[in-house]
Amino acid sequence: MLQGAGDTNARARGLRRTMSPPEVRLWLGLRTRPAGLKFRRQHPSGAYVADFYCHAARMIIEVDGIAHEFGDRPQRDATRDRWFAMRGLAVMRVPAAEVLRDCDAVVAGIVDAATTRLRDQE
Fold first, then answer.
1. String of b and e for 8-30 (b: at least 16 CB within 10 Å)?
2. Which residue among 19, 70, 74, 92 is least packed, with the fewest CB closer than 10 Å?
3. pLDDT in tens, 41-72
4. What is the Cα–Cα distance from 81 to 78, expressed in whole angstroms?
């Protein structure tokens, strides 16, 4: 299991209290353990906090709002994704607009990706 370092744990706790509307909506779908998969929200991992994490599938789910398209965010996201990949984790980025438009379809896509990773790990 990945763990946060230093102030990352405290930052994760704060982020759990201030989740964005798309994150809240997705959490309502993931917290029911679809397909028996356990997801954690705002999970501290090293210097980062993952929006959602499935330990069994070793998969990070990031909900990306419009801000992820501007400034240095794309480069920062790529650096973060490489950090997770070096630790054997897959990162699935989901547009916030898609979560708001059809959360059930997003949850189904996440579950499909996670179960595929589980099969591939066997």
1. beebbeebeeebeebbebbbebb
2. 70
3. 988 888 888 899 999 999 999 998 766 565 67
4. 5
Give the pTM: 0.83
Sign of CA dihedral 67, 72, 78, 79: negative
Half-sphere exposure of residue 84, counting CA atoms within 13 Å on the CB side?
Answer: 28
**What gap in Å lies between CA 27 and CA 85, rounded to an integer?**
23
Match 């991992």 to its residue by tokens.
45
**Cα separations in angstroms, 90 against 16, 56, 74, 99, 110:** 22, 12, 17, 19, 12
What is the CATH architecture assignment of 8-114? 3-Layer(aba) Sandwich (3.40)
